[in-house]
Amino acid sequence: MRTLLITGPGGSGRTTVAAATALAAAREGTRTLVLGADRTDTLGAALGTPTGATPTPVTEHLTAWRPDATAGFRDDLTGFQHRAANLLDLLGASRLDAEEVTPLPGAEELTLLRALRDAALAETHDLLVVDLPATPEALALLSLPEELRRYLRRLLPPERQAARALRPVLGRLAGVPMPADWLYDTAGRWDTELAAVEAVLADRNTAVRLVAEPGPGGSDALRTATLGLALRALPVESAVANRVLPEDAAGPWLAGPLAQQRKALQEWRETYGPVHEVGHLGRDPRGTDDLAALAVPGADPAPAPVEWPLTDRIADDGVLVWRVPLPGAVREELDLVRRGDELVVTAGPFRRIVPLPSALRRCTVDGAALREGELCVRFAPDPALWPRER
After folding, report:
1. Do 50 and 160 fall into the same domain?
2. Is 261 inside any structural domain?
3. Are 281 and 293 in contact (CB under 8 A)?
4. The pTM is what?
5. Looking at the structure, do residues 242 and 355 belong to the same domain, yes or no?
6. Within a domain: residue 108?
7. Residue ranges, the chain, pLDDT below 50
8. pLDDT, tens digit, for every residue of 332-377?
9. Do residue 272 and residue 246 come from a single domain?
10. CATH code at position 323
11. Contact, 17 vs 132, CB < 8 A?
12. For the chain, how are helix, strand and coil distributed in percent, rounded to 5?
């Protein structure tokens, strides 16, 4: 199954483009599911069909789904209270009734990730179009599974579960309660769910379609988004220039916007390749007829996956070189920190903590350089850890 993640700066029309993309694919005969998580039904407004917690048929081959974050959060909290009943009673904590629960910030994002996993596992559609939040929130959302799994492994290392039989004894010796089995079981379940989401995001059939209005602000937004996605190894399928003004638009006051539009479109073509231009209808698109008039294409062929290749130059230079593509990165805004078996990479406003490949764990960092949008990190073998040649 193809997965197409659609995002862009706030107000760029990304929900409309997501709906139009899904409709175009469905009209080509592709079984398509469009997924949104906005608390207000902007997806349904664009499609002309209300959407909700139950997948809703829109047209032939097209289904829309907007999962209920409140219900999901309520079920999670109720389950947690049941599993932690003994601890809550010990603390004298009062339990919350389901009727008084409202979702906390971030519940919509977690609900969207779960829906993404469920839709991918169901395999009832050929294309999944996901209407992500605005770019900054979308990039944080896409990093969430990897970061949460890392936190869980640090807080509750899986190897400690082997000592379950010893926990009561250790608790008496230490004088403090030890983590109960339910806590490890919950962490294990979360890890499994997050790993499933990570697998969808890392799949070679998953890509991102970026939406922006052609102008200075849109160009800056695309540049930032491309850098953040590259750091997450997520490929960009295409860029969509939304609300493009017609070249024959009348009025002297349009001369400035048209000039900015031409400049932005030329820059985008040189940087991102083919750009899908979506004309301005002169109104907010509503319903399938308006979406079809936008002429947004369905999913393009899947782009090549983003790879971080490791080059062996030991024979020539005595180092291994790890190449990290970071298009648009600025040398002054880059930072690298080796911490144990992990490499902390900071590029502009984005940061990622990456486990080192096994070969590089036996090396020390020998230097780094940024050349033509590619970060090259050199690693020298540590004589104390590197296998000796016979």
Report:
1. yes
2. yes
3. yes
4. 0.86
5. no
6. yes
7. 73, 77, 81, 87-88, 91, 162, 166, 169-171, 173-174, 176-178
8. 999 999 999 999 999 999 999 999 999 999 999 999 999 989 999 9
9. yes
10. 2.60.40.790
11. no
12. 45, 25, 30
